[in-house]
Design brief:
Number of strands: 0
CATH architecture of the largest domain: Orthogonal Bundle
Distance between the termini: 35 Å
Oligomer: single chain
Shape: globular
Number of helices: 11
Radius of gyration: 19 Å
Helix content: over 70%
């Protein structure tokens, strides 16, 4: 989902030397990824009130304004830094529009919910494949995707978020650890627990049909 880091690092070096063209290229390279993140994480009810493009523009403006500070102090990869800005702006959007959304948006779940990425859902379904799932539950990709997405929405917010980071944002275990400020081993354990909860939920739903 995110551009490869080697070229980003080279662009950052050029930006640090005052290269305006490199600065523009840096943000252009990450624009599509940030937009995809916003589409994935912004609640559908909120999107009736504020456009994805508006949130994207706010992220890019803020990132551009804060880039000098990142270059001077930044300890995390650029894509995780701009991701955090996007995440904060998404949370702000939910808080501003919580009245119209008719639900609380102060918890981490506001950037979760049902993801908007069918291909990632199908790939995740392959990871979750279990002999206890009935043939009917696996009949079509559309049915699989619907069940997986509904199951993700039912997870506790911390479990849902780590599933989204790993399978939809395509972040590695170490990147997730950096975001959560925990050890790589702890991030791995959280991910495995979240997968188990997701699989168990799908099995329970399947058996109750």
């Amino acid at each position: 989902m995110w551009p490869e880091s080697d070229k980003t690092e080279k662009l950052l070096l050029r930006v640090g030397d005052g290269d305006t063209e490199a600065r523009n290229e840096l943000f252009t390279r990450h624009r599509a990824s940030v937009e995809r993140l916003i589409k994935m994480r912004l609640d559908h009810k909120i999107r009736r009130r504020i456009a994805v493009s508006d949130v994207l523009q706010n992220v890019m403006i803020e990132a551009n304004r804060r880039l000098s500070d990142f270059l001077a102090k930044g300890k995390m990869p650029f894509h995780l830094w701009i991701r955090q800005i996007a995440k904060d702006r998404i949370i702000d959007a939910h808080r501003r529009h919580r009245g119209s959304a008719k639900r609380s948006v102060d918890r981490e779940q506001v950037i979760g919910g049902r993801p908007n990425d069918r291909r990632s859902t199908i790939l995740l379904a392959g990871v979750l494949e279990d002999k206890e799932l009935t043939p009917a539950a696996r009949a079509t990709q559309k049915e699989i995707a619907k069940q997986v997405e509904l199951a993700i929405a039912e997870l506790p917010s911390t479990d849902r978020d780590i599933i989204l980071m790993r399978h939809y944002e395509q972040l590695g275990n170490q990147e997730v650890a950096d975001i959560l400020e925990i050890s790589e081993q702890a991030a791995s354990m959280r991910y495995l627990r979240a997968l188990k909860k997701l699989r168990d939920h799908m099995i329970n739903e399947s058996s109750s049909d």
